[in-house]
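Subject: sequence -> C-alpha cells, single chain

Hey, anyone have a minute? Need the predicted structure for the following. Not urgent.
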Amino acid sequence: MDTVIPPTIDVHLTPADLRAAMEADVRSGLTSVPKQLPPVYFYDDRGSRLFDEITRLPEYYPTRAERSILEAHAKDIVAEAGADVLVELGAGTCDKTRVLLDAMRDSGRLGTYVPLDVSDTTLWEAATALSEEYPGLTVRAVVGDFHQHLGQLDGPGRKLFAFLGGTVGNFTSDQRAAFLDGLARTMRPGDCLLLGTDVIKDQGRLVAAYDDAAGVTAEFNRNVLHVLNRDLGADFAPDRFEHVARWNESDHRIEMWLRSLDDCRVRVADLDLEVDFAAGEEMLTELSTKFSRDALRDELEACGLAVEDSWVADDDEFVLTLARRP
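Reply:
Had a minute. Here:
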C-alpha cells in the first residue's frame, strides 16, 4: 500500500512582493487612459466566494462545460499526454485537478503534482489535502507568478502542463503570445499543454454569462474597489460604480468595465494618489477572449507547440486543447 508523502512548498513570491506588485499595478492602472485594473485583484476571500457563486449561475456556462469535458475525457487526455507529472498553472484550490489525478492514478501514471499559484495559504491547504487523498503522490507546490516563475517548474519526468478555466483569455494578444512563448521554452520535448479556452458563440449568450440577472457578476466586479479600499486606503464608493459587460467584436472578447455614475475624486492614501472620474467614465477590469479553434491552433503553433487533439463540450461551448512540444 502506498504511503502518504508529505508535500513540499517552494516560495518564490513573498507578501512583500505581492504588495509591491499591487501598488505598481494600481498606480499605473489608475493613471492610464482608459483607467484599468488587473483582474487578479478581484480575488480576495469575498471575491473568491462571489466567483464560486457565479460558476453555479444558469447564465455562466464555462466552468460546467470545462468540467464536463474533463469528466468525459480525462482518461483519453492522460493517455495521449503520456505524462507522469502534472503541472497546474493558477491552481487555486485544485478542484478540477482531481479529475486528472484520478485518471493518472487509474492508468498507473500518478507520480508528481506541481501546483503553482500566488497564495501560499491556499496552495498549502490544497497540497496537504491532495497528499492525503492520493497516497504515493509527490506534491511540490510552488508559490509564484506564471508570468515570472515558469523556470521554477523544471524537474524530472514527462510533464502535462494544465492551464484551465479559460484564464489565458484574460491576457491581451501580446501578453498571451509572451506567456505561451515562455511556457513553450519551459517545456521539454515531449511535454504537453492542456489548455482550456472559451469558444466564439452567440453574442447574447456571451454577454449574459458576464452580466447575470441576479447581479452577482456586478458585485464581483465592484469587489475590486472594496479590495483597494481595504488594502491601499482608497475611498471608492463602490455603489456609485455601475457594472458594464460588452462584446468587442474586433478582438473577439468580452470586456468588463466599471462606469462611474458621478463626477468624483478618489484618494488612494497608501499611494498618496488622487484620481478624478468623470460621470460616465469607464474603467476596464477584465478581458475574456473567445477563440475559434483555427485561431488558437495558429497561436500555439507560432510558439512552437503542435496541437495533437481537442475535446469540445456539448453545443461547442468550450474546448480543451492538447498541444505538445516536439
